[in-house]
Amino acid sequence: MKINTVGIIGRGALGVMYGKCLTDSLGSENVFFIADEERIMRYQGTELLCNGERCRFSYRTPAKAIKADLLIFAVKFMGLRAAIEAAGPFVGENTLMLSVLNGISSEQLLEEAFGSAHVLYACVQGMDAGKDRENVMYKNVGYISVGNKDKSQDERLLAVAKLFERAGLAYEIPDDVVKKQWSKLMLNTGVNQVTAVYGAPYAAVQKEGEARTMMIEAMKEVQRVAAYQDVELTDEDLTGWLSLLDTLNPEGFTSMCQDMRAGRKTEVELFSGTMLKLAKEAGIALPVNEFLYERIRELEGEGQHA
């Protein structure tokens, strides 16, 4: 199995970053973005830059689909269902799928739509890509953790690994990719939501105080939910993230905080929304995440009416 053609859905910061890396190595004839005709016309009418270089991307509508070897989903969670519908015509018998979305929910939705044989599990970390209108900038491309849900290694996984090597994308195949996803979800559920509620940069959670305490308690609640899903998140996992957070730019903002400040809809459903649903099934209470969920929803409503 060899991956020659790649379709990407989502032209945000991550989609552009990965799209540029893959296009540079495979060529624009083999890498394309999927979008409707109106959106493509808008894309083609503007110049998109990635780290100062012009992006010469190819585009395809579902009406002009080809069967792709790999589909990469790089949309916001609230756009995933529409992305799944758009991707349908591009899915062949051997098409593989990777989601670079946060959280633990996207692979389940992909499996429900296309079957588990098409879906590999992934978790992306360490990147710092950001997008300002038609400019994407990053210093660190980070790395991709990729694997199978059942911890097996097969030709599908090998094919994706070889693609990453051809494209110069750093990756790892962890022993347990699902735990990797949960661990990052624990981080995001704490830091993204708390900084969004406070409207504050990383500095707010890098020092002792109410915000940092709330963040840690939200993360501990994720530990409790994970245990009911047979995923062990240890205190060592939590303190490792705290140590990492303390190294970040104090003046930097999480993606959710950026969305909140810009009046955009956030991915709260991916974080506390998911946790609260699973906690209800398990019969446990998550008071901190319940507060964060309700407060973020209130703030989103205020932003829409501002």
Average pLDDT for all residues: 93
Low-confidence runs: none
Q: Which strands sit side by side, in order, in the main sheet?
A: 5-2-1-6-7
Could you tell me how far the N terminus lies from the C terminus, measured between alpha carbons in angstroms? Answer: 52 Å
Strand runs, count: 12
Bin the strand percentage: 15-25%
For the biggest sheet, the summary is: 5 strands, parallel
Radius of gyration over C-alpha positions, nearest whole angstrom:
19 Å
Helix proportion of residues, in percent? 40-55%
Which structural class do you get from the secondary structure elements?
alpha/beta
Tag the structure with descriptive keywords.
306 residues, alpha/beta, 5-stranded parallel beta sheet, 4-stranded mixed beta sheet
Description:
The protein has helices at residues 13-26, 37-44, 80-87, 106-114, 155-167, 177-198, 210-228, 235-245, 255-261, 272-282, 287-304, and strands spanning 6-9, 31-34, 49-50, 53-54, 58-60, 68-73, 91-99, 121-127, 130-132, 135-137, 141-147, 171-172. The protein is an alpha/beta fold and 306 residues long. It contains eleven helices and twelve strands. The strands form three sheets. The protein has a five-stranded parallel β-sheet. The protein has a four-stranded mixed β-sheet with strand order 4-3-10-9, covered by helices on one side. A three-stranded mixed β-sheet has the order 8-11-12.
